[in-house]
Amino acid sequence: MDAGAILERLEKIGIEITIAGDKLQFRPGSAVSPELLSDIKAHKQELMTVVKLKGYRIRYSDASASDQELEEISARVLIEGYCLLWSTVLCDLVAFYADDEARRKIPLGFVPYSVFELSELFGKGKPCSKSTLRLVHEAKKQGAMITGRESSSDQ
Questions:
Q1: Gyration radius of the chain's alpha carbons
Q2: What CA–CA distance (Å, rounded) separates 127 from 139?
Q3: Residue 15 and residue 27 in contact, taking contact as beta carbons nearer than 8 Å
Q4: Residue 47: closest CA among 90, 11, 82
Q5: What are phi and psi of 13, to 5 degrees?
Q6: Interhelix angle for 44-54 vs 34-42, to 10°?
Q7: Which helix (H) or strand (E) holds 26?
Q8: C-alpha to C-alpha distance for 48 and 90, rounded to whole angstroms
Q9: C-alpha span between 108 and 98 (Å, rounded)
Q10: What's the half-sphere exposure (Cβ side, CA atoms, 13 Å) at 48?
Q11: Sign of CA dihedral 59, 63, 67, 70
């Protein structure tokens, strides 16, 4: 189980996670099973990173905001070389980067996507379906790269 899966599980069972100094706190703490606590301890540093960044993410809950979101991501990648964000669709941390130098600056725990990969997924007027995007993301988490997308009417 990775940090994203742990956070998803905590959310599903109604446990709030916060940071106090160098410790993770859970409300209600009594709802954390010994098995889940073991997973939490094994991934503490990754969880700390994710929880710290969680407070800074920008969410776009309105589907009509997707153009605005893509413009902001593009601007940040151009200015800073990369953009870190939380994907509500993927329930995971993702990073978009401009080049290899920027990719090396991306913190652990983020799944990196190049500008080329971003354009392959969303820039051709036919964005990926959520299910396709989730499949691609799972492959990216294992180190896969997007090399090109065939046009298809069933996406």
A1: 17
A2: 18
A3: yes
A4: 11
A5: -95, 10
A6: 80
A7: strand 23-27
A8: 19
A9: 17
A10: 10
A11: positive
- CA angle, corner 127, sides to 125 and 128, nearest 5? 150
Sheet holding 92-97, edge to edge: 82-87, 92-97, 111-114
Would you put residue 28 in left (φ > 0), alpha (ψ -120 to 50) or beta? beta
pLDDT at residue 152 greater than cutoff 50? no
At 52-71, the pLDDT tens digits run 665 533 333 344 456 666 67
Q: What is the pLDDT of residue 63?
A: 45
| Residue 133: closest CA among 88, 89, 94, 98 | 89
Number of neighbours of residue 51 by Cβ within 10 angstroms:
16
Residue 83: strand, helix, or coil: strand
List beta partners, residue 12.
none
What gap in Å lies between CA 140 and CA 106, rounded to an integer?
Answer: 15
Q: Which residues, 6 or more positions from 56, have their beta carbon under 8 angstroms from its beta carbon? A: none
